[in-house]
Amino acid sequence: MARSAGVALLGVTLTLLASSVAWAAWAQEISPALGHSAPAPAPQEPTSGATAAPVATPTPPPAAVEEMIERGAYLARIGGCNDCHTPHVRGPHGVEPDATRLLSGHPQDLALPAPKPPDGPWRMLTSESRTAFAGPWGVSYARNLTPDRETGIGS
Ligand code: HEC
What we know:
- The chain is an alpha+beta fold.
- It has one domain (2-38, 62-141).
- Helix content is 36%, strand content 12%.
- The chain is built from three helices and five strands, in the order αααβββββ.
- Strands 3-4-5 form a three-stranded antiparallel sheet, with no helix packed on it.
- The longest helix is centred in the first third of the chain and has 33 residues, at 2-34.
- It is elongated, with a radius of gyration of 20 Å.
- It starts with a helix and ends in a 14-residue tail after the last strand.
- Bound molecules: heme C.
- Residues 15, 18-19, 21-22, 76, 79-81, 83-85, 133, 140, 142-143, 145, 153 line the site of heme C (HEC).
C-alpha cells in the first residue's frame, strides 16, 4: 500500500515536471509563429528610497530564460510529447504532426465513432490524428498541453 502510494506520488511529480517541460517547449516553438520574441522577465517590485523592502525573487536574466526554454524544448522533443499531444494530418510525406497545432491535444471538432477494439492478441487502436487511443479500458484522448487557461494547462 505504502509502495503504491509512493509510486503514485512519483507519477504525479513526473507528470508535473513533464508538463512544465512541454509548456516551455510549446512557448519556444509557437512564439516565432506568433511574432513574439523571448518571454519578458517578470517586472521588478517598485522601490521607494531606503525604506523599500528587498525584492524576494530575483528575476533571471533573459539569457537564463532562453536557456530554460531551450532545455524544455529539448526534453519535450526527446520525450516524444508531440507524438500523442500534437494532432497529425495527411501531408506530402504521409501522416505528420500539424505544426500549427503543436501540443494542442485531441482536436475538439474531431468526433470519432465508437471504436471496436480488437479481441487480442492485438489490443489497442490509434486514431489517424494519433491523439486518441482505444483499448479494453475505453478511449483516452491526449490532453491539450498548451498554456491556454481554458482548454490547456495554463490555469
Ligand atoms: C503514447 C502517447 C503519449 C505520449 C508520448 C505523451 N502523452 Fe501525455 N497524455 C497522453 C494521453 C492519452 C493523456 C490523457 C490521459 C487521460 O485522459 O487519462 C495524456 C495526459 C497528459 C497530461 C495530463 C494533462 C492533464 O492535466 O490532464 C500531461 C501533463 C501530459 N500528458 C504530458 C505529457 C508530456 C510532457 C509528454 C512528453 C514528455 C507526454 N505527455 C507524452 C498520451 C501521451
